[in-house]
Design goal:
Layout (H helix, E strand, L loop, with lengths): L1 H10 E5 L3 E4 L2 H20 L11 E3 L4 E2 L2 H15 L6 E2 L2 E2 L6 H13 L3 H25 L4 H12 L2 H6 L6 H17 L6 H18 L5 H12 L6 H25 L1 H18 L10 H23 L6 H16 L12 H11 L5 H17 L18 H9 L6 E4 L15 E6 L12 H4 L2 E3 H5 L1 H14 L11 E4 L2 H9 L5 E5 H4 L7 E6 L2 E5 L8
Helix pairs in contact: 2-5, 3-4, 4-5, 5-6, 5-8, 5-15, 6-15, 6-16, 8-9, 8-10, 9-11, 10-14, 11-12, 13-15, 14-15
Length: 546
Amino acid sequence: MRNACAERKKLDLWFDSEVGYATISPVQHRAAISGVFLISWVALGWNAGSPGLATAYVDPIAKIQAQDESYYGSMSLEMARHGDWLTPRFLDRYALTKPPLLYWLQASAIETLGNKAIALRLPSILAGAATVALVFAWLLEENAPFAAAATGALLLLSSHLFFVLSRIGLMDGLLTCETVVAMFALARDPRLASRASLWTFGIASGAAILTKGIAGLFPLLALGLFCVISRERPGWRRLAAAAAISAAVAAPWHLYQLYRHTRWFWAEYVLTEVVGNSVGKPDQTTQESQFGYYVKRWIALDAPLLAAALIALTRKRPRVVLAWIIVVLAAALSFEYRNTSYLLPILPALALLVGEAIPRSRAHWALVLAAALFVVKIAAPVRTWGLPFKAESVIPVEPVLDRYAAMKRGNELILGDPNDEFASACLNLPRVRYLYLDPSTGRRHYPLDLEYLGILMTAPDYIRLAEVRPKYEQRLRDWGLDHGDPIATAILAPTLDQIQALVHDHPTSDFLLPAEWAAQDAGIHEVVIAGSDRELLLSRETTKRP
């Protein structure tokens, strides 16, 4: 009898005080969830391949572009081209800031769809659609009427931060989806008693770690807090089993890198990424306080969802969702580095709070309001809370770089004062170097000291590269890299005179420079007016690539 009642609750879609209950079959139940997934996939994927890489704002308040989209995309392209799927590389050097799950998914999409922006964004789009469908399914599981479940899903889909980060090639959308999967498994089976719940939670938690390192601990930390605040919780054996499954998924790659590239992994992944950005003093994009930074962005990006969730907390406080919110919010406030994307994993939890708190008698009206809000956001794409189906910003030099790549020249390209957000690293170019005018004498040194390794080099050293190269090659070998290809990836020049000397001494290199810098060429290169206050200096000694 108890099982029959539970099954009826699962199938309940709608309630009206005059009409009563209306139920659907399990097949219709699954079809509804699939329909939500497909609708979300279409909405998130619509025109997602058109904007250039890194043109979305990860922080629309401070106008911070998603530079990491080009950074991650470059590593995924490198995997697809050369087949080293275990060790990510960026511009010929190891890049061990994050685990590789996103790169693996992007590289797989590239092998299927080719080198296109949509291939780099497809994992995020699918993860975003799956997250919306999971929120919808979760609310139905909690006996919410269909209209309330649809309202929760629609509020999430129409949230600016969720919408934007689910359409670009960053790790946050994938991490959020994995967190929701783990929390859904825990909510359905708070004791993780069934094998399906245990393995689903463990695999999703391990995948989260394999996606974004320390931030991937959210599900396990939420599980720990849930055990503190809930009487219905897993026993010690189930907790140990969940942790063991997570470790079995995430540990092999970490152990391989620790064994294979010990110094590099420890310096870049552990000391710089985990310790430096979490508890150290990283460089910030804004001087706002930690609390003020996130409150300001939360209100500006989605005040209706935040307000509705706060009201919902006065009606329902599901312990799984509360543990989830507290852990993610505490992490965002405790991490020394501030990033708006850290708020993303909280948004599905807020949508769940709202969906569960909607009274049955008002579910229809709630859905109408959510749909109206969705339409208003579509109609105002340039607002911080709007839904942009087009590029939010532009990279002025991007058309120039595309035309240059189409020339298929065999020369190296040196970008002066680069403003391309690393988009050039995603082009099929033989070699790219970045030249900066930097008069400062004191520079911050990180555990992975790129200047010591020669990856970051001063202009005087670059001018005499043949002389200093053996020293840096040996240092790179000491750090486990058996070639000197990344030497002088970035070049720092303290004065324009040194830039002039560098251009003069490298007649076989191509340059894309600000007009003021290009004026130092003195006729050595062929000057092409490239636009956006930039000039392209083409070497008169050129080779063609196949």
